[in-house]
Write a structure and sequence with these properties.
The complex is a heterodimer of chains A (113) and B (114). Chain A contains no helices and twelve strands. With 113 residues, chain A is mainly β. In chain A, the strands form three sheets. In chain A, strands 2, 5, 6, 10, 11 and 12 form a six-stranded mixed sheet that branches. Chain A has a four-stranded antiparallel sheet with strand order 3-9-8-7, with no helix packed on it. The radius of gyration of chain A is 14 Å and the shape is globular. In chain B, strands 2, 4, 5, 6, 9, 10 and 11 form a seven-stranded mixed sheet that branches. Chain B has a four-stranded antiparallel sheet with strand order 1-3-8-7, with no helix packed on it. Classes of the chains: A mainly beta (113), B mainly beta (114).
């Protein structure tokens, strides 16, 4: 079955540091890949997605590239801000007709000024 | 604006009681999902629906049920609440028909079973 393995946290960085959160997946077929973010006390919201190999998703300075050869979708940001403090979830969705999300365990990110 | 809402936001109940959590979306989405969030597990799928009268079991469906009588609502029922069901529950919806769909999440319901 489908699975997502995500870098364990928590991760603490100083403001303006470079961020990488690792995500690898196991899936049959051609899944779509997602990063969701959860701010304190809120539900999840889509951060970015990529729907086919070599696609790069980007939003709010975050980027992730769909690497089929390494089955990875690592999240990166060049310069983090205090407002980026949140929990980040990597997820995959199966092929057409299997529109369920499989989530990683989440990575809590804290940015200190 | 279209949205997805959950009620109640917080609920405390006792072991053995029946509890229903409401989820309502105004996007006219075909797909609706229920997840639970627990530390160390991320989000796990409980039940899902691809349309009216359609319901399916997810990864952790034991002790839960859903019914879909209209497009907007997918209530989640705990038939006999157990302490192991203490969790944060999220409802989500998506348009349906595409494997690239974005799921939109509600604000969550924190359930405590004593």
């Amino acid at each position: 079955g489908n699975s997502v393995t995500q870098m364990e946290g928590p991760v603490t960085l100083s403001e303006e540091a470079f961020l990488t959160i690792n995500c690898t997946y196991t899936a049959t077929g051609y899944p779509s890949l997602f990063w969701y973010v959860q701010y304190p006390g809120e539900g999840l919201q889509l951060l970015l997605k990529a729907t086919k190999a070599d696609d790069k998703g980007s939003n709010k300075g975050f980027e992730a590239t769909y690497r089929k050869e390494t089955t990875s979708f690592h999240l990166e940001k060049g310069s983090v801000q205090v407002s980026d403090s949140a929990v980040y979830f990597c997820a995959l969705m199966g092929d057409f007709g299997n529109e369920k999300l499989t989530f990683g365990t989440g990575t809590r990110l804290t940015i200190i000024p | 604006d279209a949205e997805i809402t959950q009620s109640p936001r917080h609920k405390i109940t006792e072991t053995g009681r029946q509890v229903t959590l409401a989820c309502h979306q105004t996007w006219n989405h075909n797909n609706m999902f229920w997840y639970r969030q627990d530390l160390g597990h991320g989000l796990r799928l409980i039940h899902y629906s691809y349309g009216v009268q359609d319901t399916n079991k997810g990864e952790v469906s034991d002790g839960y049920s859903v019914s879909r009588s209209n497009t907007e609502d997918l209530p989640l029922t705990l038939e006999s609440a157990a302490s192991s069901q203490t969790s944060v529950y999220f409802c989500a919806s998506s348009e349906g028909g595409l494997s690239t769909d974005t799921q939109y999440f509600g604000p969550g319901t924190r359930l405590t079973v004593l």
